[in-house]
Amino acid sequence: MLDVRRLRLLRDLSHLGTIAAVAAAHSYTPSAVSQQLAALQREAGVPLLEHAGRGVSLTPAGVALVHHTETILATLEAAGATLAAARTGLSGTLRIGAFPSAVRTLLPPALAAFGRDHPALDLMVTELDPVAMPDQLRDGRLDVALLHDYDIVPVAPDPTLDSTPLLDETVYLAVPADADFDADPVAGARGADWIVGTPGTLCHTVAVRACQAAGFTPRVRHHADDFTAVLALVAAGQGVSVVPQLGAADPPPGVRLLPLAAHRRTRVAYRRGAGTHPAVAAFSVTLRASTDAYLRR
């Protein structure tokens, strides 16, 4: 019989890439992870891993086992959701991941309403860049998360997660109010200084990709990840920046927002099989109502 905990480690290795990363995600030592994977390989009776340089990679049998593991883990999540639905009332802890502009706009009213309706359920919010959330959903540090991508930087579907659409936002180029731009704002900002996110974040990639589509590489002057700070820098004449609708709420004087053709798409994500968990389902409904109310303002 294959051990589910060891199967989870193999699945995580396929996503995280190194034994050290798997160990860090589970608060194990790399040696302990290696021992568990070796035990799984003995249980399987066929090689699951092979050396690749200084690391390891999955064999074809290992890859096939990971596909089965995804189905097994999703079934366990669904079983847990069924048992949770049989209990009376919602209790325990719901761990929520969200990106900064959603924490500032959409989440506060949703948390207040959800807390009133389900006072025995503790809500814990962690602010994260969307790039970091799938790993935390997979390893159980989050139960539900607000993920987003942009149509100009689409993210491939993650086979370990399910999600439902929440919001489709207009994306703007934020420019100083006295700036003069052509019909194509990004092309018109070819010679401008740019304010972009930290390298490695989705916001950084989006700004660079938008400029590349217009035929140039941005001249980056500042790195900032908080849109309030970004807009303050724009108002001070420090450059231009790509800002989505939620991040552009209540811009300061001295900023003009020029709509772009790009859109940011936000969805509510959770582990495969967890969509029917009563806490996840109820929070999704509350969050959607909060989002609709925010958009009607």
Largest sheet: 6 strands, mixed
Report strand order across the widest sheet: 4-3-5-10-6-9
CATH third-level topology of the largest domain:
D-Maltodextrin-Binding Protein, domain 2
Strand proportion: 25-35%
Number of structural domains: 2
Rg over CA atoms, rounded to whole Å, is: 22 Å
Separation, N- and C-terminal Cα atoms: 56 Å
Task: Assign the CATH class of the largest domain.
Answer: Alpha Beta
Protein name: LysR family transcriptional regulator
Keywords: DNA-binding, Transcription, Transcription regulation
GO molecular function: DNA binding; DNA-binding transcription factor activity
Organism: Virgisporangium aurantiacum
Task: Set down the secondary structure blueprint.
Elements: H1 4-16, H2 19-26, H3 30-44, E1 49-52, E2 55-58, H4 60-86, E3 92-98, H5 100-105, H6 107-117, E4 121-127, H7 133-138, E5 144-150, E6 161-176, H8 185-188, E7 193-196, H9 202-213, E8 219-223, H10 227-235, E9 241-244, E10 255-271, H11 278-295
Parallel strand pairs: 3-4, 3-5, 7-8
Antiparallel strand pairs: 1-2, 5-10, 6-9, 6-10
Helix pairs in contact: 1-3, 1-4, 2-3, 6-11
Organism: Virgisporangium aurantiacum
Family: Belongs to the LysR transcriptional regulatory family.
Pfam family, one: HTH_1
